[in-house]
Write a structure and sequence with these properties.
homodimer, 3 domains, Molybdenum Cofactor Biosythetic Enzyme, Chain A, alpha/beta
Chain lengths: ~425, ~425
């Protein structure tokens, strides 16, 4: 952090998140990531992020430290109406200002309640207690106004901790102010590839680093079960460099790339199915609706997804999927035979082009020597017939469920791609 | 942060997470939260958390800063085999040590590959390059060993960034070391309540703060659509104080508490249904399997969940739920009539005690003046008959979906509770 001193010519930005819940493990901080992503879009860089508890002295100390080292501090949290909301007081102490009712902020709070025909709680008035000299920032969504302050050439923005309120205020008030303070640079350019089916060291060994254009960085991240490969370059010719790097990597890794940049695997598979005019039905047992839920988290899923049966009970497999009882009795619900029968029965019942079935043991219980936890069968029925495969996935329940769901997406992707070619 | 100086008698612990992806918005940091929660279980407090990019100098500067101010630093990330994994080098510089192949660490990497009968990539050898004097920490899950170092009375632990590897190594190596360094204190005690159906200021206004025992703190957090209310107390009589506070709050808020502490609403509703011997089937349209996916993320869902139909297409509503075509034509799939017919048809098809149906417009498209985005109908069929209600939820697609799913859980909770009484 002392290293920051050497960079004070840059337009350095820091995020300070406040809240006991961020440091005692109750809640994960998402605000830092949201702010960071938005800043990156305009070529601004986040220099560091810091989290401190809901203690006035800790917030004050963090503010003092950061204002000495960066040009802009964006603070989230502690603006609410309850007793643990101490940020305004800490800001007043850190900037040597008194705390007073800010009339503009008070009017913002009043107007929020008026517009919604709701009664204002007395505690909401506290939200207008701001350091003298602060400019209130409107909150379109919640009751707590934000505010802006200056100290020793550092600009401080105070936003609520609730993610959607924070984000709306950041876009409405902070971004325009940043653009005035420091014109946005051409952003560092980046391409992201989301790969399925190869471990990170294997991917690393497949990348011909020496052939990549100079100035192209490669970085890795994991979003189980996907490995993210990120190419980055700076400068005016960044796009061309990345194009060249991509042309080199595409033949080597392209087969495993499920999505790029802002795309999601589920969104892309959905588009492939829609474009190929393929209708889909799903039968999910151990994944319990996860594949359907992934698909339907995207707008437009109704263009290809006809329906999904989460068939936990054997009776559901018999009724909706026409799996014969003797088959269930002989082979069990987690078997190649059952997966095949589920896919065939589902396709028969629905008349969709594709019918995909998943049955398995997600754990933690239900495993046997022959079929341990992580045993999963996937079956896909189409006019070409039925394909079934047994997998053995590792890890706890949620990992087995996610791996099964993404493997199902991968099957559908490959089917649709094969049709295209 | 300068405030840390005043606390140097305490056993202060800091977390340093490294990774460009944490500061450019690509990936949210979950490691800080995991470590914080685990520390809290043993009465250790996380003093602050810091994130810096994958730059050797930034990591080095952060390490220098933190080692001056706290007793223990837990670092995650940058131990992989790829070029952006620079933590060991930064650690060597920050502690003034040379980097060398650590034989014990190398043997750990080799043995990982041997056990799995997999070929080792040459880049994996880099993972054994550690500062002189470092003690390697075994990694049961991945290839990268962690390590432990001392500097000027500060203990540093370096763990991988991949969450499950980090967590396993934290439990296996870091926690036992912490207990040796500083006996765990009686933890600060905490009770969490997860409330549904009341906004935060309303809850705040309902809490009789003056009646609560002295020393009991109240804090709020939001996990949409739930509001978390947290009671905390220190000292030997913490549990008794919290018991008394809970006894005061229970009659006021109890009706809205869906879960406590580590419980989840979906887990609790599942248990209520299981204990009441109620079988359940679901028909999800706009939530696309989210309710089923919530239930089945918990082990033991098969005890009550018979099946779920994600009926996106009208044909699915006709086949599986026996919704008459004329009804769909006359009222549309998003209508009170359709929700009622779905629940009745589902219960008839499945024979379960309860059949719950959700149909609505999650958006962003599909809204009309009469039925705007956010219009959702929920219907519950039981032997008592059918209950249907229309809702108007706010926000983007994912919020409408989550609110609908939790409202469905709430209906099931209230039904099961009413049976109990």
């Amino acid at each position: 952090m002392q290293h920051l001193r050497h960079h004070n010519k840059n337009f350095d930005i820091a995020v300070l998140t406040t809240g006991d819940e961020l440091l005692n493990g109750e809640l994960a901080d998402t605000n830092t990531g949201t702010i960071a992503a938005s800043l990156a879009n305009y070529g601004y860089k986040l220099r560091c992020s810091l989290s401190v508890p809901d203690q006035e002295k800790e917030i004050e100390a963090a503010l003092r430290y950061l204002t000495e080292h960066v040009k802009v501090v964006i603070v989230t949290g502690g603006l609410g109406s309850t007793g643990d909301d101490l940020t305004a007081r800490a800001a007043a102490r850190a900037t040597g200002q008194q705390l007073a009712i800010n009339e503009l902020a008070l009017e913002m709070v009043h107007s929020w309640f008026r517009k919604r025909n709701r009664a204002m709680e007395p505690s909401n008035e506290r939200q207008a207690l701001l350091p003298l000299g602060a400019q209130p920032l409107p909150n379109r969504i919640g009751t707590a106004p934000g505010f802006r302050l200056q100290k020793d050439g550092c600009e401080l923005f105070f936003l609520p901790g609730v993610p959607n309120e924070m984000q709306a205020m950041f876009e409405q008030s902070v971004l325009p102010a940043l653009k005035e303070l420091h014109p946005p640079a051409p952003a560092r350019q980046q391409r992201n590839f989301k790969l399925f089916g190869l471990p990170e060291p294997k991917i690393d060994s497949m990348i011909p680093y020496r052939q990549l254009p100079e100035g192209v960085d490669v970085a890795f991240a994991l979003d189980y079960p996907l490995v993210l490969v990120k190419l980055r370059a700076d400068g005016d010719d960044a796009a061309q460099k990345l194009d060249r790097a991509e042309a080199i990597l595409q033949p080597l890794l392209g087969d495993h790339i499920m999505a790029r940049d802002e795309e999601t695997p589920e969104g892309n598979v959905g588009k492939l199915l829609s474009n190929a005019n393929l209708s889909l039905s799903l039968a999910e047992s151990c994944t319990g609706g996860l594949v359907a839920s992934l698909f339907t988290s995207q707008p437009g899923a109704s263009a290809f997804l006809e329906r999904c049966a989460v068939t936990y009970a054997d009776s559901a497999k018999q009724d909706w999927l026409q799996v014969p009882l003797p088959l269930l009795q002989q082979h069990g619900a987690v078997s190649e035979q059952c997966a095949r029968a589920m896919a065939i029965g589902l396709r028969h019942a629905t008349g969709t082009d594709l019918a995909l079935a998943i049955t398995g043991i997600a754990g933690p219980d239900g495993g046997t020597a022959e079929k341990p936890v992580g045993t999963v069968f996937i079956a896909l029925a189409s006019q070409e017939g039925v394909h079934v495969k047994r997998y053995q996935f590792n890890g706890e329940r949620s990992k087995v469920q996610r791996m099964s769901a993404f493997m199902a997406l991968e099957w559908l992707r490959r089917f649709a791609l094969r049709l295209q070619n």
